[in-house]
């Protein structure tokens, strides 16, 4: 009998939204969308010391921003509520009782001192041996009597002899001999506090999860969890462990080689679709050639079985390149909407002014589109537009280039006069033609005017078409800049 397809992610809300979580979410989501399954979001918030509400909110906001909508989970609800692990503890403890009663788990009354002594012994050993609690063979009635008398204990899982073999959908057959696995703690000593390996199984069972796709770091946990399923007499889900995301130093992706949080990339102005596309490439490929593909193509083709085993190197240069590809493909109106927060942050004008000048702003953004890789690049290219005209800051390189042109003052002044008198008129394309003819008539070369003119108008050594910039500035403002330039560059 095939079970309904139900996948989930179970993030712990402890800190920023890591790209690894986003990638795991992406693959789970895509699998559910492609094969008509349900994508569940469960918050594993049992680590009270490290969880924060802010982190949980950031996860929900981040996943939504990426367009990874969950079918069941916080804020969304669903048939297996609550989706907040901390609210399911009663249920977990009931499962623990069941396992104690069936003998698959036992109470370990060892004191912290005894456990420390055992650990110290372990360190002295050449070969590690798995922990088997001294009380594992204690008579159940005796253990219950001691517990009732108030003696503290941990609940441990009784690892049977033998080995566990399972078929990982990415890695193939994985076998782990049981003598490598400790009788691990299901419920911590002294507090009714269940551990991850235990509750994840309870919740996955309760929520009828059919497939568990998660990071490779969890591979060591899977045999423990599989043994629990079989102890409970329940069918286990299918498992797949996604390859690690590596930094350019080939070590696990971390701050050493770049930003790791989704928020960092949002703040820098990476287009959403570029982030989505780039994450999809972390361990998966469309056809081995096509790097840029749409979300629809991804969903159409994604299969967990095609994910690579080898670690995926996260290449920041390629990411930046991809950001530019997406950004430059946007329609001007769309791009303007995406760069708007960066414009407001730069403080050039109020939200209302921006709204009033929206068509102009769209043209301004379009004029530099080819030069942007990230939304946050906008201020570099157009910031000068919002400076007082007579004081546009000159980039030293631009100024040096302008000063090399001996006839700069004369040509700037002459050009300003021609513009003011209407000798140069019409559209930006006509200005360009007329200006070139005018320069020739002065017996000068194009750069003799263009270099000082660009410096006077923008303060930059390079940039978009000069006459388009002039048009965006408007003739009066441009004249003010050119006349100031003639003085400043004298
Ligand atoms: N809370 C675990 C994590 O964030 C979940 C692992 C799992 O998917 O089982 O890594």
Question: How does the SSE layout of this entry go?
Answer:
Blueprint: E1 6-9, H1 19-34, E2 38-41, H2 53-65, H3 89-101, E3 105-108, H4 112-124, H5 140-148, E4 154-157, E5 163-168, E6 172-177, E7 185-188, E8 193-194, H6 196-206, E9 211-215, H7 222-232, E10 238-242, E11 245-246, H8 262-268, H9 272-280, H10 295-301, E12 312-313, H11 316-328, H12 332-346, H13 351-356, H14 358-368, H15 378-382, H16 396-403, H17 408-421, H18 428-441, H19 446-458, H20 466-473, H21 475-488
Parallel strand pairs: 1-2, 9-10, 11-12
Antiparallel strand pairs: 3-4, 4-7, 5-6, 7-8
The structure holds glutamic acid.
Strand order of the largest sheet: 3-4-7-8
User: Main sheet?
Assistant: 4 strands, antiparallel
| Strand proportion | 5-15%
Distance between the termini: 86 Å
What would CATH call the architecture of the domain at 387-490? Orthogonal Bundle
Number of strands: 12
Q: What portion of residues is helical?
A: 40-55%
Taking all Cα atoms into account, the compactness measure Rg is 32 Å
Which CATH class of the domain at 387-490 applies here? Mainly Alpha
Could you say which overall geometry the principal axes of the C-alpha atoms support? elongated
Quickly give the structural class: alpha/beta
Q: Low-confidence runs (pLDDT<50, min 5 residues)? A: none
Mean pLDDT: 96
**Count of helical segments?**
21
Bound molecules: glutamic acid
CATH-defined fold name of the domain at 387-490: Arc Repressor Mutant, subunit A
């Amino acid at each position: 009998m095939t079970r309904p397809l139900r996948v989930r992610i179970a993030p712990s809300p402890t800190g920023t939204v890591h790209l690894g979580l986003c990638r795991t979410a992406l693959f789970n989501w895509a699998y559910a969308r492609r094969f008509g399954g349900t994508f569940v979001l469960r918050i594993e918030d049992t680590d009270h010391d490290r969880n924060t509400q802010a982190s949980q909110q950031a996860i929900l906001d981040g996943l939504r921003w990426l367009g990874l909508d969950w079918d069941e989970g916080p804020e969304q609800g669903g048939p297996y509520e609550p989706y907040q692990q901390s609210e399911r503890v009663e249920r977990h403890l009931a499962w623990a009782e069941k396992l104690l009663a069936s003998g698959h788990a036992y109470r370990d009354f060892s004191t912290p001192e005894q456990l420390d002594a055992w650990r110290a012994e372990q360190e002295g050993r050449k070969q590690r041996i798995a922990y088997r609690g001294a009380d594992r063979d204690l008579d159940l009635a005796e253990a219950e009597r001691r517990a009732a008398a108030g003696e503290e204990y941990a609940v441990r899982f009784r690892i049977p002899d033998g080995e566990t073999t399972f078929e990982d959908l990415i890695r193939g057959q994985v076998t782990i001999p049981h003598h490598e696995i400790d009788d691990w703690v299901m419920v911590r000593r002294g507090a009714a506090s269940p551990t991850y390996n235990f509750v994840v199984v309870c919740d996955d069972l309760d929520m009828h999860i059919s497939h568990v796709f998660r990071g490779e770091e969890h591979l060591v946990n899977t045999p423990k969890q599989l043994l629990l399923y079989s102890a409970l007499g329940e069918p286990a889900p299918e498992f797949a462990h996604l390859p690690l995301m590596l930094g350019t130093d080939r070590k696990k992706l971390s701050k050493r080689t770049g930003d790791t949080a989704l928020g960092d990339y949002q703040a820098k102005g990476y287009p959403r679709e570029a982030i989505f596309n780039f994450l999809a490439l972390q361990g998966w490929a469309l056809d081995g050639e096509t790097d840029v593909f749409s979300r629809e193509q991804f969903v159409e083709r994604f299969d967990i079985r095609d994910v690579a085993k080898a670690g995926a190197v996260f290449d920041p240069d390629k990411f930046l390149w991809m950001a530019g590809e997406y950004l430059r493909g946007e329609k001007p109106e769309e791009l303007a909407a995406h760069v708007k927060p960066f414009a407001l942050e730069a403080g050039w004008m109020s939200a209302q002014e921006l709204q009033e000048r929206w068509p102009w702003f769209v043209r301004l953004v379009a004029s530099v589109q080819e030069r942007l890789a990230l939304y946050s690049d906008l201020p570099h290219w157009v910031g000068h537009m919002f400076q007082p005209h007579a004081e546009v800051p000159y980039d030293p390189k631009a100024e040096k280039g302008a000063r090399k042109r001996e006839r700069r003052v004369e040509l700037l002044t002459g050009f300003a006069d021609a513009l003011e008198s209407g000798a140069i008129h019409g559209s930006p394309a006509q200005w360009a033609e007329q200006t070139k003819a005018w320069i020739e008539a002065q017996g000068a070369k194009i750069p003799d005017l263009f270099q000082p003119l660009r410096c006077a108008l923008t303060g930059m050594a390079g940039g978009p078409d000069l006459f388009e910039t002039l048009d965006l500035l408007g003739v009066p403002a441009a004249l003010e800049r050119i006349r100031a330039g003639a003085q400043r560059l004298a």
